[in-house]
Each structure stands twice: as structure tokens, then as C-alpha cells.
Write a structure and sequence with these properties.
- The structure is a homodimer.
- Chain A is an alpha/beta fold and about 900 residues long.
- Helix content of chain A is about 45%, strand content about 15%.
- In chain A, the strands form 7 sheets. In chain A, strands 14-24-23-16-17-18-19-15 form an 8-stranded mixed sheet. In chain A, strands 26-27-28-29-30-31-32-33 form an 8-stranded parallel beta barrel, surrounded by 6 helices.
- In chain A, a hairpin with a 4-residue loop joins strand 23 and strand 24.
- In chain A, helix 19 crosses helix 34.
Chain lengths: ~900, ~900
Amino acid sequence: MSRYVFDFSDGNKDLKDLLGGKGANLAEMTRMGLPVPPGFTITTDACREYLHTGTLPSGLLREVEDHLRLVEARLGKRLGDIHEPLLLSVRSGGPFSMPGMMETILDIGLNDTTVLALAARSGDERFAWDSYRRLIQMFGRTVYGVPAELFEAGPGDTAALRDLVATYQKVFAEYTGRDFPQSPREQLYGAITAVFQSWNADRAVLYRRQERIPHDLGTAVNVQAMVFGNRGPRSGSGVAFTRDPATGRRGAYGDYLPDAQGEDVVAGIRNTLTLADLSRIDPASHVKLLSIMEKLEQRFRDLCDIEFTIEDGDLWMLQTRVGKRTPAAAFVIAAQLVDEGTITLDEAISRVTGDQLAHLMFPAFDLDAAPEPLTTAVAASPGAASGAIVFDSTAATAADGPVILVRHETNPDDLPGMIAAQGILTSRGGKTSHAAVVARGMGKTCVCGAEQAVVDPVAETLTVGTTVLHAGDVISIDGTTGHVYAGAVPVRSSSVVRFFEGELSPLGDPLLAAVQRLMTHAGHVARLAVHANADTAADARRARRFGATGIGLCRTEHMFLGPRRELVEHLILGDHESALAELLPLQRDDFTALLREMDGLPVTIRLIDPPLHEFLPSLEDLTARVAAAQAVGRDPGLDGLLLAAVRRMHEQNPMLGLRGVRLGLVVPGLFAMQVRAVAEAAAARVAAGGDPRPEIMVPLVGTVQELDVVRAEALEVLSRVEGAPPIPIGTMIEVPRAALTAGDIAHAADFFSFGTNDLTQMTWGFSRDDVEGAFFGRYLDLGVFTVSPFESLDTTGVGELVRTAVERGRATRPDLPTGVCGEHGGDPASIHFFHDVGLDYVSCSPYRIPIARLEAGRAAVTPATQPNGAAFGPTSTS
Amino acid sequence: MSRYVFDFSDGNKDLKDLLGGKGANLAEMTRMGLPVPPGFTITTDACREYLHTGTLPSGLLREVEDHLRLVEARLGKRLGDIHEPLLLSVRSGGPFSMPGMMETILDIGLNDTTVLALAARSGDERFAWDSYRRLIQMFGRTVYGVPAELFEAGPGDTAALRDLVATYQKVFAEYTGRDFPQSPREQLYGAITAVFQSWNADRAVLYRRQERIPHDLGTAVNVQAMVFGNRGPRSGSGVAFTRDPATGRRGAYGDYLPDAQGEDVVAGIRNTLTLADLSRIDPASHVKLLSIMEKLEQRFRDLCDIEFTIEDGDLWMLQTRVGKRTPAAAFVIAAQLVDEGTITLDEAISRVTGDQLAHLMFPAFDLDAAPEPLTTAVAASPGAASGAIVFDSTAATAADGPVILVRHETNPDDLPGMIAAQGILTSRGGKTSHAAVVARGMGKTCVCGAEQAVVDPVAETLTVGTTVLHAGDVISIDGTTGHVYAGAVPVRSSSVVRFFEGELSPLGDPLLAAVQRLMTHAGHVARLAVHANADTAADARRARRFGATGIGLCRTEHMFLGPRRELVEHLILGDHESALAELLPLQRDDFTALLREMDGLPVTIRLIDPPLHEFLPSLEDLTARVAAAQAVGRDPGLDGLLLAAVRRMHEQNPMLGLRGVRLGLVVPGLFAMQVRAVAEAAAARVAAGGDPRPEIMVPLVGTVQELDVVRAEALEVLSRVEGAPPIPIGTMIEVPRAALTAGDIAHAADFFSFGTNDLTQMTWGFSRDDVEGAFFGRYLDLGVFTVSPFESLDTTGVGELVRTAVERGRATRPDLPTGVCGEHGGDPASIHFFHDVGLDYVSCSPYRIPIARLEAGRAAVTPATQPNGAAFGPTSTS
């Protein structure tokens, strides 16, 4: 028979899955001998059983009664006793903290009779009626769903409170069709059942989906004897942190409210006092509290937050947990705990995340200089942006200065405007709306669902309350907090970025010192190297300052843009050989500059990848130009020739067309020119005394035969360039077939680099450009995805191909170097996966380098995760 | 130590790998006691050793000398003997017959001395000098590469021949820089070495690549005593078949040339006689020959072809092998051999192929009514087509009647013309040219590389010899034979098709009787069922007549074309719900008609797959129309609205965009309308007393979550239609991720159907539309492909995904029905693969049904192939 109930003295902090976080920590404090009001926890097993069968598990009532008797015995009170009534609180508490669930009902046990006993025993009639009033209100709202607004506010004197209880009882009876239950046991079991049911409330389900919390965990229920902070001036309630959760500064930090219950502190009805004030009011309790907080830090080995109540001079601990903190505090506290000998450096890096570091690297508004926000909405894509308001895409693209695109909601028509704008503000939609999904994909600041803002695109006004803004007025949006401000707000650059850039010293700055220390340790323990995706010498320089130990992806096509487009037009339309001859020295100079910046480090150069027609004007533009010319009888001239070429080269699906290695096999001399440019650049660097380490990477290979041909041609070209160092020739693995046949391909490849962007597109069969706006929002809403597979690697599907390719490649060539150069190389969860499957490096954009370095270290000290089931196993068992 | 030489009396017909086909069969005849001139075979092992090391294997010379002495002893002659000189032939012979290799050198052993002995012994001086002339010519050409044209033609009288020998010796010496070797042993070893080397001649390598013959087999060499058919009227040479290779008719059939060597028969210099003539000229040899041919048929259990020589009244067998035959003969002979008790029906179906059946089903020119061909070129894509000549794509698309597009070569610009034309004729390029690859992809008749034809697109003339044809003149091209005819040639419909259609009876027609018999047996033994891809009642009817036992793919999008496009425009632009309401009864009628045709058989209906914008006019058309209107100041009207919609819905890569299940999840009510139409159609059929068996198939699923949502909605719709039978809901497996996660997907799928077209596109990362013309020809030339993966399944890459999905799907649901509905379902090699991986059915277009039925039977009686290595193993070991 299962055991469904644990007394607080039976559990401990490691039983979170069974007892929930709150219950496990109440048990831990009880075990530590701290003053915790007695009580017990009903397990998550009981909840799951209830959700499965729809009835409370058999045996549960008996266990509850047994434990209830224990509590009664300890306190000398009994539930429903008309002389010494025991009052109880019932609180939910799952393995993860989860807003949206029923949380607390206080004062269970009060009824028309026991309220009189409470008044008599406490000598405080007002307190007794106020407690009863609270019970009816909380019970009605959470157990019977009585709308909160039906319970009018207003504690007054005792008589008024007695009347209010009568009124509330009437409200309850009218709404529910039955009288307020006078049986304390009915109150207790009603509350327990309501907690169980709240697990499947809409908001709770939505929250779990967003936060990727499994739906089958269930919640525990904590039943505890009441203590009262509202028993007069010698009573009170407070919350406290063992360190400052905003900055990490050492020392207790908290709020205290005399003559109040915990919910009053949180509600912010009255101004709270500080802990220093408490030391004056009740020095004994203050000293005791500080001593307890120190013990808790030692036990939990981290910043704790606590809730406490003082009842008539007796201190009671109601809750503790490892406290939330800002990203800056996370770094500072982790470093402090190392200094204090509490944790190791390995543990320290496991307590900070790449996402926290990313937040520290975003530019942020200078909040000291910021006005009151106009409104606060969904923080959909982080960053800080100011600009003139525009109401449509055309205005956005036509604008000279920075603009913020303001829309009800966005659709694919708005894409050009979204690209042109500094940021996007919408009045509708949440984190999975079109605007949110696309903005995150672009790394663009976005605030969504500003419901208090009225957007009128015809009148071109944005109205919030009484403030009316017009097109051209400047607003500022904070995608990290969701704040919207009228006017420009000064932006403060990130001190962490300036530190990485070498502009700030960590001396005397606790945050920078902590970042430096943890990053250094991450570098020591990491197995994954971190390379950069960089196409220019400037990018390479920044990447190197940010700690990149190589370039994992240099895209050579970017080198064919701008004025060099004309040479590509020659290559396509005109004299093939002379165009290549003109491109050769330009490419050589590109590579020479890059190799100079990265002297002594590997530089992986990818041969040209996109279809050549991408360098020509668009079919649509040319069609319109030629049609317009012909309509007025004018010769379309060069446009006509270009249109013919673009039509000839037009592809239905350019992503699946003549690109990558296919170009190299079809366009004579193109790859050879690039290979020669690499070799000559390397030879020039050697001649200049440098240590160039170029590597050549062939894109889009699907079968070893393609690579065999390209490799033979490249080796022939390399053999003819004197003075060049040995240059490895490897391949991207970005086509599913390449992953499946990696055992063959490894025969012809000196290294593998996973192109997880294309691999994701082809494995799922969708193109990022076409789908993020078109249906990703819907998919996230439906729960088809928990996160976009372009943001974080789909470890089940795409990940299996990566794992398979590594295994088969290494079966052929045991020392095969492997890396990843898709955007997933900078994503924390993906980096852990790449560590687990044994890659040698990740490569990402320069600004993600520090994040990747940190996560590479964290991955090395964290047990391997089994994300979404084992790679070859099922992801669900629907 | 290896044994490199086998006397003919040591081998047998099962040693083809070691002795080559020719050597194994010479040995077999020797073992049978037939009159074979003595000789021996040098093994393929020796060849491989030579190719590997560049020298003849040690020990080979000694073995050759030993065997040579045996031959000498048997005949009482010696190589180089000045009284009784032994003359030898040296012939190549690999495991597969292979044009492009050096084949034969005769008369080895002749020199300035032995020629005199031969003259003396034979009493025929002219014969001796003619033989010597032949030796110098053959040896010079094949061992030293002396160009054939340097040896002027012309046997004359003896004196002239003696002069010719002197001339040839001079030619030889001038070209090679050395005298013609007088040593018979040098001649012998030179010839053996030349045979070995010819394995790697360009033409041989190319041929092997085209025919998918492995490059590492090597060739054997047969050394044999010469016999002479050119020793006067009692001598002669012939070739014969044991049955008519054109029709399969019983009875020996052959050509005989008196006083001639075998090469003279093949060269066709003189008109040959028939075997009936031989029975008059040399009745004894004739009787002996017929008796030998009967023995060979019994031994080889099949039609044999033979080469024989009669030397002075003595019959000698020089070669035999299982003979090539026409597709019609293949069927007739296989059935005959069953009748004769020689082979089983299982063997009979393994001796005919789906490709042969396909040839019998193409319409063909009525050759009795055909004129002489103008020219014969590469038969690039089978079929027969007549039409007016057009020289460019514009003319082709503008033409009213049938046209043949005539080009030097084609490129992507010609695609519209290729689609519009009945057939394509080019003067350049071979089987892998753009024209050939694209035409085969379209199933369009094509003749390529007609080098004798001069195409002048400016003058618009096609000139062959003295015939000049102009644009508009009619020509006919035969893509099965490569013939090109001036004028229209009557087309004869296929009797086999008319038989399948039920229009012809097999009674009294040996071909149709054979086809019927073998098809029936194939049906009995096949494990794979054969379903049809059919969207209309007419297609379904034909498919059923052709033997389909279900519809494996009904594409519902075809039902939205024509006048219904307007409803799709409403769906997109206008009133969504009313458009769906209007579509519902139309779809219901579509499905009712289909279910009526296929009463009692499964009909798998795929929910709509392509992006909705495909039903709107093209972006290019609309852009041009709107631009033209605006240029002259006219309001573009509806075109403007449509353009906005098309722009909004435009996709960079529609194949990877909003289609398939994604549409179903994004467009409310679309799938529900289709599901309801299916259920209502089925209910109507039940009410009418029918036995409807519809199945619903969801396209493009990549994760089980998509299918979960669609399935739940569909089940809800189905539950509301009264009177409908149970309707299974399954999924396509066409996205790589679906194959990888098939274990999950099977939880929500009642069946799997592999969409191998899309699966091939996504696994390789290329779209068929974009790549076949752009680079497949180049890939075939380079040997990257041996066959287009759209024609025949890539069993290594795509096949691994199919195999994986079947295994994982069945692990979840052991009785999961699986099939394939991509075009590979009608491809013979692919069908064998699908049989081997355990699918339940293949589905293909109606005209491929009989081919698939035959191959399904053949697969069941053929051992599993290991195409390109095991599915998970390497395809090469470069």
C-alpha cells in the first residue's frame, strides 16, 4: 500500500518530487529543529492518483486523520473543537514553483461556533471575525470559484466585520446554491481536492507548456497548523533573503509588517519595515531570525528566501527555498560562495546560465534616467530599442532614422518593416504570436500584447490611458522587462560586454570579477572549444577578444556582395574565365586579412554555398521593370537580358536547388578559384612570418562521390601553390543523407562540421524563412513545439542524425574532428547536447561566444541530460 | 599459391566469376564432350593481380607454358614450329559481357617462317597469307593501338596478300617504332597483357559505370587452338540460336557463311545462308549441330546462342551462352520452358522483368508501315512520337497540333517546350544529357545525340544527308530504338495493354498467353499487394482492370483545379466558411464516385497537400499585369487584390512551407471539411448497398504531436456522420524526421504510407523540379549517381530511413500496415527493396500496375539483394 501522507518530521529537502518544493523544505526545517508550526504533506502520488481516477485514493482519509491527530496532540487543540479549536492552512506545492495554481487557504476550521472560541481564547474578537471573513473569501474563491469581486473589501471594527461575515456567507450561498460549510472536515477535504484540481487549470497547463514542465508530475498539499502575525503589535509577518537578490550583496535583506499576515506583506497594502526596524521592535526575534537564516544558508548552500511569522513574540518559519535572483546577483553570489568555501568552482558555474550571461550582455535602458513606463506588456524578445513610431511596413522601410513598428499584430506582409525597424510593439498576442516568434528569430527587440494600448493605424495614433502619441513621436520599448516608455530613454551599454572588449577592468567591480572568475573556470573544465562564425576581419577581431579559439565558419558568399555583384553578373552572363580571374585577388585579400587576425588559430572557410541567381536582381523587380517599359513602348535594355538570365536560373525551391557542392561540380573553375585564393593567402601569410591555419569546407554534400570529385580538384590546386601550409579539406554535414552515410563520407573528409540550420530545415522539411511567421506561433500554442527547433536543437529528430553521423564518421576515422556551425552552436541547451554527443567544438556568432564558453564549461560539470527521451527512443507515449 | 590457369576440361559453367562467361561455358561444353578446340583460361584473379601490381603474377608464365604443352600434345603441333605450327586465338571474357574491351586476336603463332609452314600444310597459300595479314592487323590495333584506318583494306590474290603483309608490317613498324614481333611467345604474352589492360580502357570504364558493373571484377583470358572456317567450300562459320530470339518461336535459327571465319559472319560483308541451307551443303554437320544445340538447351535450361566453325567437314563449337532476346520472346520462351517441364513457374517469372513488360506496353511504331529511318541515335527515353518539327520552346507552346522539339541540346529555358511537345530530338548529348534526363523524368519520348543530323535553328532546317526538313514538316522518333523517320509513322497500340484492358483474348496468341500465365503466377507468389495512385473514377477503373487491389494514393488537390479554383480564391480572400460549405458537396461527390469504382477495395485518400497559393495565379503573371496597368495609368482592379494576397502568401521555398498537415493545423475547417466529405461519401455508399473502404491519410507529418491534433479533430468529425463505416487514419512518412520518430508516430497512425518522392527530396536536400535539368546529367556523367534517385530508390540513404521507419513503427504497433505511394512504387529495383524491407503494398500510376504486379512476384522468388551494400554499411571504401 502506498503511503500518501508524510509528517513534516518524516521528510527532507531531497524529496521534492514526492513532497513538492514547499513540503520538502518545511520537512527539512523541521528536521533542523527550527520553529515550524506542525503539519504534514500529502504527496504528489496522491494527486496523480486523484487526477487519474477522479476520486481521492482509498486510505488517504485515514492517513490524513492519523496525521491530524498527531498535530492535535502536539498542540493540545482539536479541529472543530468548540473550546480549543485547531486552525489549519492548506497550501499547494509542486516539484516546481508554478503560478496559476491554487496556492493557499488559511484559517480552515472556523465556523459560526469556533469563531467564538477563537475570539474567547485570543481575547481578540476583531481578529477572530477577520480570520473567519478571510476563510469564507479564500474558500469561496478557490474551492467554489466565486469571483473575487463579489466579495466587497473593507475590514472595519468588530461589528462591521461580523456583518461582513454574514454578507460573505450570503454571497457564497447565492453564488454556489448552498450554505458555507460549517464542517471543518468538509472545509479541509474541499481544500485538498481543490488543490489537486488546480493542477489542470487552464493557466497552470499553459504555464507548464511554456516552461517545459511535464504535465504528469502532480502537486503536493501541505496542511499546517495556523500561526497568526495579526495578533497585535507583538506579532507580524515578513519575507527575507539571506543576501540581496538584486545585487548579490552579502547580508540579510527583507521586509517586515507588524500585526499582519503573510498575504498582507505580499499584497503591499501597507508600507513594510526593514529587518533593521525589526531589530528595534523585537530584538530577540531578530537575533533568532538571523541565526536561522545563517543555518539555512549553510544547509542549502545557497541564497535562501524565507517567509516567517511572529505570533505574540514567538518566531515561526513558514517557508524557505533557494531564492530567485537577478543575473548579476547569480554571478556575484556564486563567486562569493566559492570564496566562503561553501561550494566548488564546478558548482559555481553550474549555478549560472548562458541565458543569464546573455541578459547581462544586452544593452539596457538606464533605469535611473527612465520615466514611469506608459504600460508593461509581454517581454517577447529581449533588448532595448528607441525610435519614431511608424504604423506600417512601408513607413518603416522609408524612414531615415530608427523606428519602432507599432501594429495590432503582425503578419508576413510586415516582414520588410520588421527588418527595417529597431523594435516591434503590438497590442495583441503573446510570446507565440507572429511578431514574437519572428522577432526572436531575428534577434530584434519586441514587446507584445500591450492590451492597454489602443493602436489606430488609420488615425496613426497610439493611445495609452490619457497619453496620445502620433506617428513620428519617439517611444522606447524594453524587450527584457516588457516596459513601454514615451520618449527616448538613454541606453546603457553592458559593462560585461565592455569588460569582454577589454575596455573595463574587473578590479573593484564584484560583478565583473565574478564573471571573470567563472568564465576562466569554465574555460578550464570545458571539453568543447568555442569558435566563431565570422566573415570579416572586424568580426574575427571581436570574436577573438570574446574568447573564440578559431573561426568555425567563414561564409565566402558575403564576399560577393556590394560592388562585387557585378563580377558575379559577368560570371553568369559574360566571360566566365575573366570574371573568375578578377575575383581571385579579391578573395585572396579577404582571406589574407582573416588569417592575419586569427594567426595561429584554425579558420574554416566554406566554399560558396547559395545559388548564383541570388546575386542577381529579383525576378519580381525585373518583371515589373520590363513590363512597365514595354507598356509604354520603351526598350527594357539590360533589364531584359537580366530578366532572361534570372528566368533561366529561376528555381522553385532555391534552398533545394543548384547550390553548395552542386555549384562546384557544375560551374567550372568556381571552387578552384576559391581554393587557390585560400592557398595563396596562406602562402602570403607564411611568407610574412605568420602562422596561418586555414581549412576548406565543402557545403551541402549528400554523398561521398561529390566530395571525392571536389577533393581531387582541390588537392590538385593546392599542390600547385608553393609555400602554402597543409590545408585540411572537410565537409558540412547538413543534408540528412550526409548524416546517414557519414561512414562513407568520412573517407574523403578531414573534418565534419554540422550545419544544423539546414539539417533542421531538411529533417523537418520546412524552411525557416517560410514557416516561422506562417505557423510556428500556432505550433507553439498547440504544443507541437515547446520551443522553435531553430532556436534550440530538436534533439530527438535532428539530434539523432547528429549523433549517428558522429558515430559513423568516427567508426571510419577515429580521430575525425567534429564541430557545429549552425546557430544552435550558441544556444545553451543545444551546447549541452553537442557536449554529450562528443563534438570537438561549437561555432557561433561573435556576441554568443562568451555564452557558449560558459555553457561549454557547464556541460562538462553537469551530468548528461536525456532531453525528450533517449535519442533513439520515443518522445511520448500518447 | 594461387592457381591462375584452368584447362577447358577443368572448369564448368558455374565458375563465371573466376573464368569469365566465355571461359566457363567453353569448359562446360568441353565437359559435355562437345567438339571444342583445346585451350585454357587465365583467371580473373590473374587480371586483378596484374592491374594491382602492373606486372604479370609470378608463376603465371610457368602455368601458361604447362597448359600450352598440353594443348600442343593433344594436337601434335607446337607454337612456332616450322613444320606443324600451332596457331592460337586469345579472347577476353569477363563475368559480364562488356563492349569496349579488347575482344579477340586470332592466328597468334604466325610469323615470316611459320606462315610458309601453314601454307605448305594446308596446301592453301592464299589462306596462310590472309591469316598472317589478319594477325598483324589485329595485333597492331589491339596490342599497340595502331589506328584501324592505317591498315588499308583489300584481300586479293595470293601475291597481293603477300604484298599486303609487307605493307602492314611497314605500317606497324612506322607507327610503333619496332618490327612486328616474330616470336610467337611475345605475340601470346603481348595479347594476354593487352586483354588485362583493356579492362581499364575509357570505354570499358564508362560502360561499367552505366551498367552498374563493379570495377574490381577483372577479366579472364581464353587461349585456344585456332580452327578455320575459311579453308574452302567444306568449311564455314555460323551463329545460331536454339529458338527465335525475336519471337521465341521454337526451333533452331541461325546464319551460316561458307568459307569464312566467325568475324566475317558478324561483319556482314557477304550475305549469309540459313541453317536450312547448311542442311543441304553439309547434312552431317547440320545434324550434329542440331543435336548439340538440343544438348545445350537441356544443360543451360534456356535459349542458347552459339558460334561454330566447320573446318573441312569437322564441326567445332567456339562459344555458347544464354542468348539475348526481345521482351516478347522472353515471355514466350519462359512459358514454353515451363510447358516443356524444363523450369518451374517461379523460375519463369524470374526470367522476365518489369522493364521488358514496360516495353511491351509502350505504343510502338508499326514497323511494317515504317520507311527506312533517316538516322538512328541514342534511345534516351522510350515511346513513339510523331509531330511537326519546331525549333524552339515558344513555337512548341504556341502550336495547335502535336510537335517534336528539335534542338542542338536543351537547357532549362526549353522546359515549357519540352512539356508541350510530344517528343524531343537533339543532335548532341547522350543518355545523361539535359534532354534525356528531363524527358525520362517526364515519361516523354526522346532521341538524343543524332550526330548525323544538322540542326539549324536560324534557318529552321533539320538536315540528314540529302534530306532537308523544315519547321512544320512531320517527323517521327522512336525512343525505344533511337530511330528517326521523316513523316508520320503509324503507331500500333500495344496488344499487351489491350489484353490488360480486356479488349484482346490471349487465346491463340502465344505472347498474350505467356503474359497471362506469368502474371497469374506472379500474383500467386507475391507478398506485396499492388495499389494504384488514382485521383479520378476513370483512373480508378483503369487501375482496377490492370489488377490494382486498392487505391494507395488519391490526391485531393487535383479536385480543386479547374472551375473550383474560384472557390479556393474565396477560401483565401473571401468568406472562408461559405467557401468550405460549397466545397463539401463537390468533394463528397468526388469520393462517392471513387468508392463506387473501388467497391470492396481500400481507397486511401490524402488530405490536401500543396500550399494554397498554388491555386492562385502566379506572382510573376500578376506582377506583370499590375505593372503594365499602372504604367498606363489604369487601375489594376482584381489583379491588385490577388497580387497582394499572392505576395502575402508567397514562399521562398513552397516545398518547405505551409502545406500538408501544417495547412490542416492553420486553416480552420479545411481538413474537417475533407474528412466529413469522405465519411458522408462512405455513408452514402453503404446506404446504396456498397462496400466502401476509405482510409484517410495525413501528409507531411514530422512529429506525432501534429498527427495527434489532426486525428482528434478527424475522429470528432467522423463520430458525427451517421452510417459511415470505420475509417482508419494514417500518415505519410515523407519527412526524414517522421521516419526517425516513426516509433512515436505509430501511436497515432493506423497505417504508414511512404512518400518516397518527398522523402528523397528532403533526404538529399534537392527538389526534383529544380535539379533534374540543372545538374543530374552532370552527376550521372561524373558517376555521382548511377541512376537518378527519383527513378530508382536510393537504397543506401533514403532506403535506410524507410527501413528504420518500418522497424520502429512495427516495434510500437506490430500489425502496422505499411506501403509506398511515391513513384518508386512502380520501379522494378525499388519494388524488390520494398519487398525486402517488409512493406505490405506498393502503389503506382495505373500504367505501371502490371509491371509492379510482375516485380512483386519476382521479388518473392528472388533472394534479397544487397543493393549498394547493406543499408547501414558503407557504399564505397575509397
